[in-house]
Amino acid sequence: MKVTLFATCIVDLFQSNVGKATVELLERLGCEVEFPPSQVCCGQPAYNSGYVKEAKEAMKRMIETFEHAEYIVSPSGSCAFMFREYPHVFKGDPVWEPRAQKLADKTYELTQFIVEVLGIEDVGARFEGNVTYHTSCHMTRLLGVKEPPMILLKNVKGLKFTELPGKERCCGFGGTFSVKNVAISEQMVDEKVHHVEETGAQYLVGADAACLMNIGGRMERLGKPIKVLHIAEVLNSR
Amino acid sequence: MAMKISTEKFNDRVEQGIHDSFMRGAVAGAQDGMGVKRRVVTTDELSNWEDWRNHAEEIRQHVLANLDYYLEQLSENIAQRGGHVFFAQTKEEANEYIRGVVQRKKAKKIVKSKSMVTEEISLNAMLEEEGCEVVETDLGEYILQLDDHDPPSHIVVPALHKNKEQIRDVFAQKIGYTKTSTPEELAYHARVTLREKFLEADLGITGCNFAVAETGSFCLVTNEGNADLVTALPKTQITVMGMERLVPTFEEMEVLVSMLTRSAVGQKLTSYITVLTGPREELDVDGPEEFHLVIVDNGRSDILGTEFQSILQCIRCGACINVCPVYRHIGGHSYGSIYPGPVGAVLSPLLGGYDDFKELPYASTLCGACTEVCPVKIPLHQLLHKHRQVIVEKEGKAPFSEKMLMKAFGLGAASPALYNMGSKMAPVAMNPFTVGDKISKGPGPLKAWTEIREFPAPNKERFRDWFKNREKGGE
Amino acid sequence: MAKIGTIHNRDSFLNKISKSLNRPRLTGPIPRPEWKYQPQHEVFKGASPDELLDIMKVHCQKIHTNLYETDLKGLPDVLNEVVEGYGGGPVVISKDERFSEWGLDSLLKKEWPSRDMAVFEWDYTLGDENVRRAEQANVGITISEITLAESATVVLFSDKDHGRTINFLPATSIMLIPKSTLVPRFTQAAVKMREIHQQTGRVASCINFITGPSNSADIELNLVVGVHGPIKASYIVIHDL
After folding, report:
1. Could you tell me the domains of chain B?
2. Mind listing the pLDDT tens digit for each residue in C79-94?
3. Which of A101, A183, B83, C15 is the most buried (most CB within 10 A)?
4. Is B208 annotated as a binding residue?
């Protein structure tokens, strides 16, 4: 099966290890992975801040880049949701709305793709450690992907799982919110860090690099010894 | 009290909220407790909760689409029953009409049950100007009123930000209370004090949860029973409703009341749901002899027909407030409006203007928790996003630096060549700020980020470079 | 027939609405919509009266309300017991022939008065005196017309003989519930209310849905039972009615 990787700009620039793990994992599961180098950012930062005109330019480039794909897979629930949102953004546009719709229809978040499209629930991973999991808001509420990461983590050998208290609550990232309302964001992320600590986990795992950058950045600043991992990295360990 | 409850800047209000540890504990406790109760009576108990939400939504949408018809039907039926109906385009018109009734009836002692719309139109200020004694009879509202009109911080639990010791002090200072701070004793004292007020009042004022067009009725939803005494004892009654708060028949009223009580307080029904139609009947002993309904627009019709119309579906349950992670940490007063939380962040700029409330749409991570629980399916986080778009595109109220940044984003993100060059340069550009693999004191937009968190240094080898090299290596 | 009321400022107000909605004013009757969703009719569909009673009993525990069960024969004793448990009179009742039909005359008119428990029967000819009596009463007794099992709610319709304040001013409240009045939930009551309106053209000026005693959680979210309305409430379900 041919998979076109939408790596996201955060992964491209700051978390290349997540991108590598995603590629290796998908290949191990029998996919042929391509990465179109003309991909840029999905437009979400500008879009969510209200700069729709600016965002649309980025979105058009992304549509052009990805429309040839059979399946588009992204290691980020939030960015995958942005693709799914494109048809609404271009609503009424005779050229771009149908193209956006086609793109949206074949876009998947990584764990969703593995469970729902590949039909695999056990990726054959082994990971020794005590893990808790942050369910990102966009991935669960907007994209509607709740079960797949849980199913995949449950089948990782050696992994001990503890549920995160208040897991449905936002970590305080919210894109530009994290810098625009830093005082509020700080309170939110501190509550999240507190809950992560409560679990006694050694690893905080998530499926959205942005949330992880927020929680991880705060834990690092506070000197917490908890390590942050993207779910692709856990699923890629053997 | 008008809609705007503070003259301080948004950030200052937020700072105060964040440092009010009692309030924060109360809000977090309320959110957690209410969350469990709400889940039990919604998704746990009703396996088809989504159908309930869909039904509630279709009722509200139908009413808004046919609002002029239903309001006409409502007013006809009220008049048939001997009630008087006044349509008030503005808050001034509403207040003037009510002033006229007060003067004609020579009313001096007024009891009120909880109503957000009367807060919105600053009704109490007018009544006090007229020399009336106005008593709020909802326990929470009564506490706030005694405390020199402290603003409400929650639309269902208005005094949520106060602890019982503060309440005891207010009672001691204002109504000669001498007992302890146990809620039972405080509430009993309020019962005894307010009972007198009910019995001597010559005018009762209520809000309206839902009016029923087909019969000219309206209903009131409480747990305390105060609205029942407000509407049973005084000889004159005035009910004030926001113009969108109606349903076609009792059958739709039932559905929305059920959605309201479950979503607001996690109860199947509250203790008292009261359906009132017109003044008392000829031989009745209690109930008002004269009944007035004041239907208020106050900016609502300007929302109709716009992309914000769905906010008028709101039934004021406060479920969005009870799940909002931002409200959780800053409390109601930070919003600077009588309508806090997600609903307030959408509604306040629409009814009160962007000048006073432009920060509110940004006080959200767009996490969607509000949208998920809304019983009438208002896409709250999407409306917050629409506000941002309006602020940027139509109002031009976004900061200059942000505009420049976003313009650069537009250029950079839209052009693969520019993106490629810029991102390749990133590690070099960030080099002066990088220690090890992290940035602790970032420049420009990173400054605010690194005030509280580390930021990762850009990878020396971008993912795309790794991928390209790997392909070349023929793996 | 009561006199007709007045309507002010209606046309300009409604015209503004139709303008915002970008269409002409709607005037003619619009048909009742065919709703796509109707989940409310599915709740406890087909439940028997006994099942409904069980549902109600369970919920009574959550609303701080005692539920007693009896047949007509035992009713006077149960009612006497509950009133005494509340500390006796004064008692206020609505004017309703059913009290007599259900064999309560002796208790209400002889036994209690002879034990110095005043019983006041609502009498509209006495005007405001009724309200004064209700305010002084320790117990108010009324009869449920429709009873909602799901929420353990009684429904009362006001008129000249059934004053509104009987249920609100006395310190405690007792509702007599004929078992046959049980319906699954609010839905059936709403349908019934519409039927009454359609058949008679009238609606009671006040319809109360009462679920247990009054309460408030306004102080630190602590539930306080008994605020403005009754402090305590009991239901007496009568099986053979």
Report:
1. 66-298 (3.40.50.10420), 400-472 (no CATH)
2. 999 999 999 989 999 9
3. B83
4. no
